[in-house]
Design a protein that fits this description.
Blueprint: H1 12-22, H2 28-33, H3 48-52, H4 58-68, H5 74-91, H6 94-113, H7 115-126, H8 134-144, H9 149-162, H10 167-177, H11 183-193, H12 207-213, E1 253-258, E2 276-280, H13 292-308, E3 316-318, H14 322-331, E4 336-340, H15 346-359, E5 364-368, H16 371-376, H17 384-392
Parallel strand pairs: 1-2, 1-4, 2-3, 4-5
Helix pairs in contact: 4-5, 5-11, 6-7, 10-11, 14-15
The structure holds flavin-adenine dinucleotide.
């Protein structure tokens, strides 16, 4: 069974153990049955909370899968690549994330002033709509911090086309409850369902498909049949792939880790005993309160990372403490702050605000881009299949 225990152990050891336990099922079984949303989620890996925070990296998952299945695990490998595709696609179009945040602010303002919308939104979030399946998934998400991929697709489709709620409110509901909540995968998947990613194409949830893939547990009635795409502005032209920064050898260096990358290794040139500190931005996933399952997971993952790197007392700063963070480094004589490259999202925004504060204290920020991202993101220009051809070539 893939059942995720609660609270989910937020350690690298748990991540690698889950990967090892799943590998025998990453081939034919995954390809045939990954769409089934059954109790315990037996046919998918449940790795997303770990990959999201890089307690295990995408490259490690791809390598281990290929070693276990030199052939026959294409479907699973493709799904892991989807994550990299979405990351690269958004990284090259940051305006899409800004527009989502702006749309969310506007939708939350409407919720304050339109009583009908507020009641509908609250009912959807609480799982009180009376729609079979949908109510279950709303409650499952809040209670466990996880939903099966197919349930995410059905839920988003019903939210947008049957309930006709603003898609940004649904994306925000996911982002503050999913432990794997990710600016790229989440925003772009919601946009894909609503017809804002692939022009003219939406995802329509149907009673038959839901009943078939839930083993008859749910068969909602009254679902929208008219699933025409939401109106969209053209995609912005992709900007070039950002360059990572090089480390300046010999400079007194500290390592800043954050929730987008807690692997803590894989950066050549960084001495093992580099002083460690953390930036915590989890509360900034949403203007609303983030599910304690999410904040608790990140908190425990930082504790695990600090222990793994032999610095259990490594200090933590939030995005509200950036001056204090910069002062802390200056007081220690640090001249260079190395940090894993943070893709578009709250951490990247905080790092952007931190850079001038560091600069004012004579400290350079070195954002270290992993080879996996540097090599794949150049192909995130159009659709997934063109991307896939590029990364597999
Ligand atoms: C509306 C919607 C919102 C989503 N929001 C998120 C999100 O916030 N964070 C997130 O990580 N995924 C998101 N997904 C993608 C996908 O649903 C989850 O990654 C997957 O369900 C995680 O479960 P798993 O680890 O058991 O997946 P598996 O099927 O075992 O896949 C293995 C890994 O591949 C990656 N992956 C699989 N499917 C996808 C996909 N469709 N897109 C991107 N990566 C994928 C994940 O890292 C996953 O852990 C969303 C999908 C939809 C339709």
């Amino acid at each position: 069974m893939t059942q995720l225990p609660l609270p989910l152990p937020a350690t690298r050891a748990a991540a690698t153990a889950r990967l090892a336990a799943f590998l025998p099922r990453a081939g034919a079984s995954y390809a045939a049955r990954r769409n089934e949303d059954l109790p315990g989620h037996p046919y998918v890996s449940g790795l997303s909370p770990y990959i999201r925070h890089r307690l295990v990296t995408e490259a490690e998952v791809l390598d281990a899968t290929l070693r276990a299945h030199p052939q026959g695990a294409d479907k699973f490998l493709a799904e892991v690549w989807w994550r990299t595709y979405w990351k690269g696609w958004l990284e090259r179009r940051p305006a899409i994330w800004s527009a989502y945040r702006q749309g969310l602010t506007e939708a939350l303002n409407r919720v304050q002033t339109e009583a009908g919308l507020r009641a509908q939104w609250e009912a959807a979030c609480k799982g009180d709509t009376g729609i079979d399946g949908f109510d279950h998934w709303a409650r499952e998400l809040a209670a466990t911090g996880y939903l099966h991929n197919h349930a995410r697709m059905w839920f988003a489709s019903i939210w947008i086309f049957t309930l006709r709620l603003p898609w940004e409110l649904g994306a925000d509901f996911f982002l503050r409850h999913l432990i794997d909540g990710d600016p790229a995968s989440n925003t772009l998947s919601w946009r894909w369902v609503g017809g804002l990613h692939t022009p003219g194409k939406t995802y329509a949830a149907t009673p038959d498909n839901i009943a078939k893939n839930t083993n008859g547990r749910f068969r909602p009635t009254g679902l929208a049949r008219d699933c025409r795409p939401l109106s969209m502005a053209p995609h912005p032209a992709p900007r070039p792939v950002p360059d990572g920064d090089a480390l300046h050898p010999g400079a007194a260096t500290a390592l800043l880790l954050h929730e987008d990358d807690l692997a803590g290794d894989g950066f050549p040139g960084l001495p093992a005993a580099t002083p460690l500190l953390f930036l915590v931005t989890t509360a900034r996933r949403s203007p609303l309160a983030v599910n304690p399952l999410v904040t608790g997971f990140v908190d425990a993952a930082l504790t695990d990372t600090a222990a793994r790197l032999g610095q259990p007392d490594a200090p933590r700063f939030t995005e509200g403490d950036l001056d204090a963070l910069a002062d802390h480094l200056a007081a220690q004589g640090i001249r260079q702050l190395a940090t894993p490259y943070a893709p578009i999202g709250p951490t990247a925004a905080a790092l952007q605000r931190l850079a001038p504060l560091l600069d004012a204290r004579g400290i350079r920020l070195a954002r270290l881009l992993r080879d996996h991202d540097a090599q794949a993101w150049p192909y995130a220009t159009h659709g997934f299949f063109r991307f896939r051809e590029g990364v597999m070539a």
